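User: Sorry, what's this?
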Amino acid sequence: MSVTVEERGKPNTQDYRVFFKNSEGKYISPFHDIPIYANEAQNIFHAVVEVPRWTNAKMEIATKDALNPLKQDVKKGNLRYVANVFPHRGYIWNYGAIPQTWEDPNHKDSDTGCCGDNDPIDICDIGNKVCSRGEVIKVKVLGTLALIDEGETDWKVIVINAEDPEAGDFNDIDDVRRIKPGYLEATVDWFKTYKVPDGKPENQFGFNGEFKDRDFAIKTVKSTHEFWKALVSKATSTGEKYLVIFCRPEPLHCSRPGGSKPGDANQPLRNSKNANMEKQLM
């Protein structure tokens, strides 16, 4: 699958958006239109990079916006950035999400005792390459960390880019400990403290902050895929707010609620500022 991105607006402003296009040049949703699997038989997943390693702007898939572009998170009218908490600089991995997944806020996780955070499941890519914003990569799942963020379950899936030269050496979470000693401990420390500079308490974790292995992580990812399928089929009441903004299993550039004609999904782009910038990212 070939995906390009189109940037609208100026980075580090509230107008900035990153839209996605397929190989035909049609706008698509990174949340709904990019398949979860790159290779289902081998459990290789697609992931959308929201935040490249060592950057600070808190970018995210805009799940409530038409076409679900990337945009910078805003809190109390201000753009959000993560602080450099010593010894870390920005995000310490390529950070993003697996498409066609959803952590259901109506479902209480039996392991964490908390409901989902209402977003696609997050990934931390530990590969050597510093990815680009909006890049779509193929990833191997290695394990997962159960972050409890303000009372919500927020899984952090540890992955490696399947095209990384060292990807063959990584098959489970213990390989990360062996090959990249200290990286998992740094990951726990990062998620524990990254909100402290904003005056918030340290985050908590399920399983006492222990990482779960590859099989557990894959099972978790697949369960969030089932929640996503229920979401797009109107099986949950919470999902209604997504369904009114193109949350459909067919390509989202084709239709809008109320029976609009093809092409109307371009309306959000007409309202975006500045000329586009296209990049081939997959």
In short: The chain has one domain: 4-280. The radius of gyration is 18 Å.
